[in-house]
Amino acid sequence: MVSNGIELDKYDIVQSYMIFGGIPYYINAFTKGKSLSWNVDHLIFGRDAAFSDEFDRMFDSLFVNSAEYKRMIRFISKSKSGFTREEIASGIVTSGGYLTKMLKTLKENGFISAFRDFSGKSKNTRYKVTDPFCLFYLRFNDHKTTQDEMFWQNNQFLPAVNTWRGFAFENVCFLHIPQIKSALGIASVATDVSSWSFKGNEIHDGTQIDMLVSRADRIINLCEIKFSVSEYVITKEYDERLRKRMQTFMEVVRPKYAIHNTLITTYGLKQNNYSSRFQNVITLQDLFGK
């Protein structure tokens, strides 16, 4: 990508999207000739950084009672898989009518999204923070204690950063459903996208599936979403977890459609004895163009 003299490879493009959501207002503030990590520090963590108070500015400008909306989005952001309405009500403790209004307003303004559970039960709908900048800010800059003005450049391999990458990349994938469908060769096929979680019982352990694409051609793509700095490697242990997850899904849900295991990752899949577990592999090339 070359924009206003800023050159980024696809790896940095996706990370930029994971932080700034591809919004020109943020991207246009990048400094030509500098790396993505330098720009992140300069714009968010550095002294007098232009976007160090962007989260508060956004909410204070949009909502009269911004403190309540900030409290809600901070709560929802705590979980990778999001929360049901009942869980949010328990965590926030507010009246039902006001909670409904706040969730609707946050959704209409693009801060959160409602994800239907594969079961189809409305009570299982989960709300997740899907605004990339909010996800990043709340994870690393909210009430920060560090004074490191090069925090992002100095902490690229921090476990918390790797955890965030997985979370944020999953978010990017949900924001690129048309591209995923195109990569699967089903751009014109009617689909229903959802997620699935199972708390477990006396027979099966609890598990979850990141994304399910249920298709009108009677196929369900069970999508595993993995951010990786190189080709993703399926280990013996991971292959076992995939098989157990599939068995749990088949025995609990009893789907009437054919199942295709699908991997969405950055650089593709390393071929080994277990790589045939996936019938489809989708990469950055598919999400952001050839």
Structural account:
- With 290 residues, this protein is α+β, with helices and mostly antiparallel strands.
- It folds into two domains: 1-175, Arc Repressor Mutant, subunit A (Orthogonal Bundle), CATH 1.10.10; 178-288, Trna Endonuclease, Chain: A, domain 1 (3-Layer(aba) Sandwich).
- Helices cover 43% and strands 17% of the residues.
- The protein has 13 helices and ten strands.
- The protein has helices at residues 10-20, 24-27, 36-45, 54-62, 66-76, 85-92, 96-108, 132-140, 151-154, 159-174, 177-183, 236-253, 284-288; strands spanning 2-3, 6-7, 83-84, 112-115, 126-129, 191-198, 207-215, 219-226, 258-265, 280-282.
- It has a five-stranded mixed beta sheet with strand order 6-7-8-9-10. The protein has a three-stranded antiparallel beta sheet with strand order 3-5-4. Strands 1-2 form a two-stranded antiparallel sheet.
- Helix 1 crosses helix 8 (132-140), helix 1 (10-20) crosses helix 10 (159-174) and helix 4 packs across helix 5 (66-76).
- The protein is globular.
- The N and C termini lie close together (11 Å).
- The model has no long low-confidence stretch (mean pLDDT 90).
